[in-house]
Here is the input.
Amino acid sequence: MKALLTVGLLVLSNTFMTLAWYGHLKFAEWKWFGKLGLVSVILISWGIALFEYCFQVPANKIGFAGNGGPFTLVQLKVLQEVITLIVFMAFTLIAFKNETLRWNHALGAVFLVLAVYFIFKK
Here is the structure.
């Protein structure tokens, strides 16, 4: 149960972080947003990133073996990175229709899955 909760919180966390980091590139298409200066965009991104921390910190606290969770620190980090890339790829395909995924992106994803396999292998 802690493993599923950790993964779910990491997915939510990374969804907000992806919006904070890359959402402004899409939101610039909105007239009012496109007129904002860099400082305003940074502040909006920080506001979105606050929610990322509201999910990331509990995910790490619940998931960490030192707190009774199922994952080592290294496993938590690798899991978070893979979830970040999956969320980013989904965001890219949904929000940026002009971006294309190529064979080398798929191959890189396979290597990431292999990295997770080896990190989790006992």
Q: What stands out?
A: The helical segments are 2-27, 31-34, 38-63, 73-95, 103-120.
